[in-house]
Design brief:
This protein has 310 residues and is of the alpha+beta class. The chain has 5 helices and 16 strands. It is globular and about 50 Å long. One of its GO terms (molecular function) is dioxygenase activity.
Length: 310
């Protein structure tokens, strides 16, 4: 069993309109845009990052907004829901806020003793807010959401699978512990994590296969402290016969990827160097930053990428 993974690092979803995506995560949910860059593999498309004040691992939602993408459909083999932690007693306030802007809310519910509010993002993203007393992570305090109501970061993700046994075994290998079962759900928790500590597996044998598109999670990333820890994780996964990629430099972290038995794409990302490596911390996410291999495209990209307001 590994002991290097510290919880979630980021979650990356696919979207349509970049401005609509930006407005929802910054103006509605109150996250800070900490980086405006492009997709490494498709530089004509933005890669937008939203999180806390500095984009701490465990707080960062990222998006690939493809302008002409078709809408995804929920099903088995995907991250069906991303949950954020909010202060205790705030779900009523959040329900009113979300409904005021026309977001689809799906009611409050209990899960493993926690109160949660499920809702959909502008592309149909499956999202939830979970009341977590005592979460010490500081919400972004300079946005439209008061700090005493703000998002602390991720609580966790829910994977919807036809069969959860093999993926559950993988999570235990990655250092997660199965702690509880409730109907079709099994909860896995990482000990001494970064606050984004939970992975729930929902087994729905009759669910259709998920179809990726706008509103779908592309991948979920797990956090490790540094390069040495990542190499240790990669070696163990490779020896366990997972098809792990080489280490890829993503400028703000280094990443490895592999496909889970249930079909979900996992990433393991380093905590550093962080989003301030190429910007003043006071001005994160304001200017378009380009990976070195795409720097020569700046003039064309600045003409072709749609403008995004703050």
């Amino acid at each position: 069993m590994l002991n290097r993974i510290k919880g979630l690092h980021h979650v990356t979803a696919m979207a349509g309109d970049a401005q609509r995506n930006n407005d929802f995560f910054t103006r509605v949910l109150g996250l800070r845009r900490v980086k405006k860059t492009v997709n490494f593999d498709a530089p004509d498309v933005y890669h937008l990052y939203y999180g806390d004040e500095r984009g701490s691992p465990g707080t960062v939602m990222t998006s690939f907004p493809f302008p002409r993408i078709v809408k995804g459909s929920r099903g088995a083999g995907e991250v069906v829901e991303t949950a954020f932690a909010v202060p205790a007693g705030t779900l009523g306030w959040w329900k009113e806020r979300l409904e005021a802007i026309g977001a689809a809310t799906h009611g409050e519910e209990g899960r493993f003793g926690e109160r949660r509010l499920r809702f959909s993002g502008p592309e149909g993203e499956g999202l939830a807010l979970v009341e977590v007393p005592g979460d010490v992570r500081a919400p972004f305090a300079r946005g439209p959401v008061p700090a005493e109501k703000g998002l602390h970061g991720f609580r966790g993700v829910t994977l919807r699978l036809h069969d959860g046994a093999a993926t559950g075994e993988l999570l235990r290998f990655m250092g997660y512990e199965e702690v509880e079962r409730e109907n079709a759900l099994t909860r896995y928790v990482i000990a001494d994590g970064n606050g984004a500590d939970i992975v729930d597996i929902e087994v729905v044998p009759e669910a259709p296969p998920a179809r990726q598109g706008a509103g779908s999670v592309h991948h979920v990333a797990f956090a490790v402290e540094d390069d040495a820890a990542q190499l240790e994780v990669r070696k163990a996964l490779t020896e366990a016969r997972f098809g792990v990629t080489p280490v890829i430099d993503r400028d703000y972290f280094r990443a490895i990827y592999f496909r889970t038995p249930g079909g979900v794409l996992f990433e393991v990302a380093t905590n550093g160097p962080g989003f301030a490596r190429d910007e003043d911390p006071a001005h994160l996410g304001e200017a378009l930053r380009l990976p070195a291999q795409h720097a020569h495209l700046r003039e064309r990209l600045e003409r072709s990428l749609p403008p995004i307001g703050d």
